[in-house]
């Protein structure tokens, strides 16, 4: 096994007197796709904030492989029809942090690559406000990819999208995972997508958390919601 891209060891964290994580330990290998599942309010977003360094653990360690850049795709929130930037300009915002009327050849090239990788080239001059929900979410994905991250966090990024659009977005993420060895952490309540696209899950429950393979050969080892459904024949 190679060196983990992310290792969490004996992490403890709580809000006020409510302990969320007690000695949480797990490690993710580069190039894996992992879903993070668990009931509302159990601490999934808090875990992401700890991983991104926005919160400090009470104790324990979070270690990233040297030099790892993390991209982040938020939950879909609709933008107003009036939102004026084109898809290209919107994606470019995260490249330069501000709009300027000139771009270096290297920046243009990277932007072209990312627009192509996210299947947005033909839409790049369209106003983002007029784009469909799926196109908007792909533009957020493109923004997250512009700095060439090796680790991508999808923070309920498929919630509020219709089924076909969820699948389209996750197919794209899978393609990036395979072509660029992107490591993916996918926070979701959608068990079907977790089963379809990730090899393992980090299950966070009130009593603790565990990283488990999505093991279709051993359904009993999986939480009820993740077990394959067995179709019974009508007699
Ligand atoms: N800044 C904060 N101060 C105090 N408590 C907080 C804060 N942020 C989150 N919490 C509490 O921590 C718990 C975990 O919240 P968190 O948002 O991490 O859960 P979640 O698993 O992401 O939930 P959901 O599935 O609903 O998005 C909740 O009880 C929440 O109220």
From TrEMBL:
Keyword Transport: yes
Keywords of the record: ATP-binding, Nucleotide-binding, Transport
Pfam families: ABC_tran
Stored InterPro entries: AAA+_ATPase, ABC_transporter-like_ATP-bd, Metal_Ion_Import_ABC, P-loop_NTPase
Domain ABC transporter as annotated: residue spans: 6-232
Coiled coil segments of this chain: none
SUPFAM superfamilies: P-loop containing nucleoside triphosphate hydrolases
Molecular function terms, GO-annotated: ATP binding
Family to which this protein belongs: Belongs to the ABC transporter superfamily.
Stated name of the protein: ATP-binding cassette domain-containing protein
């Amino acid at each position: 096994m190679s060196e983990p891209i992310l290792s969490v060891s004996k992490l403890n964290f709580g809000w006020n007197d409510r302990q969320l994580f007690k000695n949480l330990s797990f490690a993710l290998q580069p190039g894996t796709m992992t879903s993070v599942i668990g009931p509302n309010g159990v601490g999934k977003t808090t875990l992401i904030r700890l991983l991104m360094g926005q919160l400090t653990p009470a104790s324990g360690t979070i270690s990233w492989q040297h030099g790892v850049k993390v991209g982040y795709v938020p939950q879909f929130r609709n933008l107003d029809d009036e939102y004026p930037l084109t898809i290209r300009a919107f994606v470019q915002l995260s490249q330069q942090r501000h709009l300027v009327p000139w771009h270096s050849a290297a920046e243009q090239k990277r932007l072209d690559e990312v627009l192509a990788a996210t299947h947005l080239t033909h839409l790049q001059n369209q106003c983002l406000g007029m784009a469909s929900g799926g196109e908007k979410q792909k533009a957020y994905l493109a923004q997250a990819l512009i700095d060439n991250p090796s680790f991508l966090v999808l923070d309920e990024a498929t919630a509020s999208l219709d089924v076909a659009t969820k699948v389209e977005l996750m197919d794209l993420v899978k393609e990036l995972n395979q072509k660029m060895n992107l490591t993916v952490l996918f926070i979701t309540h959608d068990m079907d997508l977790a089963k379809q696209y990730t090899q393992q899950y980090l299950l966070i429950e009130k009593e603790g958390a565990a990283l488990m393979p999505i093991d279709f050969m051993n359904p009993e080892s999986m939480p009820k919601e993740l077990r394959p459904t067995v179709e019974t024949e009508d007699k």
